[in-house]
Amino acid sequence: MVVTESGGGLCIGGFKASGARKGKYGLALIVADKVCRTAAVFTRNKIKASPVLLDMGKLGNGFQVIAANSGNANACVKEGMVDAERMCHLAAEETGVRVENVAVASTGIIGRPMDLDLIEELIKEAAGTLSSSPDGSSKAAKAIMTTDTMVKELSVEYKGIRVGGIAKGAGMISPDMATMLCFISTNADLGRNELQSALAEAVDESFNMLVIDGDMSTNDMVLLLSNSSKKCSLADFKHALKYFTREMARMMALDGEGATKYLEVEVKGAKSREAARRGARAIASSSLVKTALYGENPNWGRITAALGSITDFLFEETDIIFESSKGRAVVLEKGEAGDLKKAREVLGGKEIKVTVDLNMGDSGATAYGCDLTPEYVEINAGYS
Amino acid sequence: MVVTESGGGLCIGGFKASGARKGKYGLALIVADKVCRTAAVFTRNKIKASPVLLDMGKLGNGFQVIAANSGNANACVKEGMVDAERMCHLAAEETGVRVENVAVASTGIIGRPMDLDLIEELIKEAAGTLSSSPDGSSKAAKAIMTTDTMVKELSVEYKGIRVGGIAKGAGMISPDMATMLCFISTNADLGRNELQSALAEAVDESFNMLVIDGDMSTNDMVLLLSNSSKKCSLADFKHALKYFTREMARMMALDGEGATKYLEVEVKGAKSREAARRGARAIASSSLVKTALYGENPNWGRITAALGSITDFLFEETDIIFESSKGRAVVLEKGEAGDLKKAREVLGGKEIKVTVDLNMGDSGATAYGCDLTPEYVEINAGYS
Q1: Is ipTM beyond 0.95?
Q2: CB under 8 Å to B78, separation ≥6 — which residues?
Q3: Which of B76, B283, B378 should we substitute to test contact with A (largest number of A Cβ atoms within 10 Å)?
Q4: pLDDT score for B216
Q5: Nearest residue of chain B to residue A175 (CA atoms)
Q6: Do B171 and A288 touch (CB under 8 A)?
Q7: Cα angle at B148 between B367 and B121, to 5 degrees?
Q8: Which of A9, A303, B42, B213 can pair with A137 through a Cys bridge, CB separation 3.0 to 4.6 Å?
Q9: In whole angstroms, what is the distance from residue A15 CA to residue A131 CA?
């Protein structure tokens, strides 16, 4: 049995959503039919935006409503917590849900006070148009976009388990403009601890392996709400959830700020999972690897150098393979350089897979990223 | 008494130098009048170029000659060590120095075999034009340039102690094209352990605080050769050496690949030196801080987010100040945003100093860097 995909997003049954937008300020509203068992992963940045701190404190209550605004991060402002609480109250009022079951999230510029009048206006508009159709989910997904150029939503089904959701993020892990947010709905009837462990594991293999610019956000948040309407095994749920988060991570990498190419880096044959993870991330985050990718330049020395900055390996045992729609090229085989002309051809593709086999052990990991382009610089030089 | 500067470079008395170049391949030759007490700092990359490994093994002998080529890194090639040894022998022959006292260094593309015929030709040419005048040092400095746009040499004097040297590096710490090399001459009559401790400390506060693209080279090397002709105190020598390495680090940051602006980040009021060092480096390496600098965009939220990814601090206690030739702006004062219009003006300058005062303790550190520009991407996309 395989996981099946549809574009429907959050609205997998038992969830309504909508969104509203005014210029660069947007608001997504998500409402479940009941209080959900909730799992969450929050940014590890020492400076956390007020909505993050507020949700962390309330997580144990379970959430029924998520109100997420874009355009202002509500971070590093003195009135931040007061404003986050006011936003909760406004969403509670409009949806008729108790305030302790309302989560808030924000993404946008750091250091500016929130315009609560505008938030109120947008919450009212979104609440008036809540829908359990795919259209409701799309509206919510669009409302939280900032520099995103693609709407990010997905729903998957596996053995009757449904996992749906929306996300935003194009400059992950980036502090003030492209913060990653992801809101996930499911019907999986599992305990809170099981949901939390499944989410932590899925995020670890997907969003935590996604590198766009290496900056860490003050606002990152992944919330998983379950309405517990489908009995299932933890293993089956993990399978469905991991599929979902991996595809979401891919969508974000594909939509990386200014990116012209998608990069997937698999390090295998490593002595430990940690070495493979760190190695794959180091390669996907190297500015020199990313610029070489942009230039379709098969400069594999940058890959070995990035890997060597992180972990021990035997150059003489290492294989490096490039793959894309343009074919497959072995660029390094047991330390011998391969066909660089073919490698350059392969880099002409839009989605590039780089496999590094260290031939030292059985562990592997995959990181997701994109190229570094002049457009990335221009986007981030100008944004405010 | 203050340190005085001159542009003379390596040739501080008792040292000769020269260089030769053919297209993108260059060679610098440095010859001391006697075997020198030698201290060194090498790259921490797990994958080290063959010349690095060779010099590490011979360091105890002390060096009298350094032969450094540009254009080929002599890294990740099976015959690398054999070629590095042959290069040593060629330099020993041409200079009449014993091979155990010859150091080699390489910078350039990874993964390509060395052209030893060309190396021999360049060594002969350089050996034939060795000179103890400033011109000899300049020739050597020019011969090791790759993407560098400025010749990097300096000599300083303090209480009769002389420290001179040349360096190359524009994409530090970068794996295959802009590797940092620095060769330093001195007359300081100190023991080998004293020289080593002084060098380690000076490098730690200068080159190790220099961030251009965050990539780590396989070829980085700093060699310090002393001909022991001037009795002095360790403290005085450290003072002179630190001045020298700090100015060299500044030159490299000013010449960062594609850079339009120089960035100096001082974190002070930290609880520990390590927190200050890591914080200053995190700010100077953030892609978002670097692009904001390029865009003259006073987006201080990126600074607090970069800092928060590394260390705990109290936003409400933090001050951030921008300074340049265009003036001074307090952009954050105890957590309150300051004059952003003035801040934008200040960022119009070419050399920007950012001071972050955490107001938590007595420790501080400074990092050196530059902006991230579309030109950086173009340079590194195309280089091969």
Answers
A1: no
A2: A316, A335, A336
A3: B76
A4: 65
A5: B305
A6: yes
A7: 135
A8: A9
A9: 8
Residue B177 pLDDT greater than 70, yes or no: no
Cβ <8 Å between B309 and A111:
no
**DSSP of A109-142:** ESS----HHHHHHHHHHHHHT-BSSHHHHHHHHH
**Contact between residue A169 and residue A252 where contact means Cβ atoms under 8 Å apart:** yes
Residue of B177, B292, B336 lying closest to A381 (CB–CB): B292
CA atoms within 13 A on the CB side of A3: 21
Would you call A308 and B47 a contact, using CB atoms and an 8 Å cutoff? yes
Q: Which residues of A touch B335 (CB under 8 A)?
A: 76, 78
Residues in chain B: 384
Domains of chain B with bracketed CATH: 4-254 (3.60.70.12), 262-382 (3.10.20.340)
Question: Nearest Cβ partner of A45 from B78, B308, B372?
Answer: B308
The dihedrals phi and psi of B35, each to the nearest 5 degrees, come to -65, 130
| CA-closest candidate to residue A153, choices A131, A135, A171 | A135
Q: How far apart are the first and last CA of chain B?
A: 47
Task: Let me know: does A140 contact A28? Beta carbons within 8 Å.
Answer: yes
CA–CA separation, B306 and B293 (whole Å):
14
Q: Largest Cα–Cα distance in chain B?
A: 67
Task: Tell me which chain A residues have a C-beta less than 8 angstroms from the C-beta of B110.
Answer: 299-302, 304-305
The whole-number pLDDT of residue A171 equals: 62
Residue A167 has pLDDT above 60, yes or no: yes
- Asked if B331 and A76 count as a contact pair (C-beta separation under 8 A), the reply is no
Q: Please tell me the pTM assigned to this model.
A: 0.77
Report the residue of A309, A334, A360 to disrupt the B interface, i.e. the one with the largest count of B CBs within 10 Å: A309
Task: For residues B329-348, give the mean pLDDT.
Answer: 93
The size of the A-B interface in CB pairs under 8 A is 207
Taking the C-alpha atoms of residue A264 and residue A253, their distance in angstroms, rounded to an integer, is 9
CA atoms within 13 A on the CB side of B145: 23
Asked if B334 reaches chain A (Cβ–Cβ under 8 Å), the answer is no
Whether the pLDDT of residue A335 is over 70: the answer is yes
Q: For B53-73, b where at least 16 C-beta lie within 10 A, e where not — what string?
A: ebbeebbeebbbbbbbbbbbb
A69-96 confidence digits (pLDDT tens)? 999 999 888 899 999 999 999 999 999 9
Whether B62 has a pLDDT exceeding 80, the answer reads yes
Average pLDDT over residues A172-194: 73
Handedness of CA A144, A145, A151, A157 (dihedral sign): negative
Q: What is the pLDDT of residues A105-131, one digit of tens each?
A: 998 888 889 999 999 999 999 999 999
| Number of CB atoms found within 10 A of residue B311's CB | 21
Q: Which residue of B has its CA nearest to A258?
A: B374
Quick one: average pLDDT of B234-262?
Answer: 88
| CA–CA separation, B147 and B380 (whole Å) | 10
Choose from B215, B260, B376 for mutation: most chain A CBs within 10 A: B215
